[in-house]
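Dissemination and training. As part of the outreach component of the grant, students in the summer workshop were shown how a complex can be specified as a set of sequence lines and then modelled as a single object. The example used during the hands-on session is reproduced here so that future cohorts can follow it. Participants entered these lines:
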Amino acid sequence: MRITIRLFGRLHDLAGAAELEREVPADSTVGSVWQALAVDFPAVAPYARSVSAAVNADFAKMTTTLADGDELAFLPPVSGG
Amino acid sequence: MAIGPDALDVAEVIRLVSGEGPGAHGAVVTFVGTVRGDNQGRRVLRLEYEAYEPLALRAFAIISDEVRGRWPSARVAFHHRTGSLALGETSVVIAAASPHRAEAFSACRYVIERLKQVAPVWKREYFEGGDVWIEGATADPSDESAREAAYRRACA
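and obtained this result:
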């Protein structure tokens, strides 16, 4: 299945892209896609403990399962206000 | 609740919560966040705010629901800005209204504390000599300990 990955803040800089299209296995989770991303872009790996995620613009867990066409966003620690 | 690149209007945010006639509240507390010129010894030139806007609106709705649960008599509204902001410009406006002042102060403080914990907004600081992404809290609205910490600060 195919998903869109969106990267924000410094993750965008480290990966050199704000948006990626990825073909992923049918049983993929947020966590498994993160692991694959950290292989493709080792510079993002240190964020494993602090990153959070959203699927289709709602907050998600690393265990959340993905469906074809999902938009998965990875969020570095936030700094609004 | 709103987020976007347009300049923020404090009076407009206050109007959203004040109420009229028999519904008029007795207290309105506002928080206005602005770009400061010094951050940890760095001379700041400007800030650039990036947001995941649809998720930010979701986060704002979660915060607003939490306020309703904690302070049923309070009404809150908040607007956050995105894009490039000069020193002194307003990045966030929060207004909280309630029949009496205590709830309005607490609700207003709670919103800014929670916003800093969970809103998917990032600031990049441009200072004399470079730039840096500011990174604070891991955004997880279901984190009970963060929620309690915000509540304690709101009621301190």
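Residues 53-70 of chain B form the longest helix (18 residues). Students were then asked to discuss how this feature might be tested experimentally.
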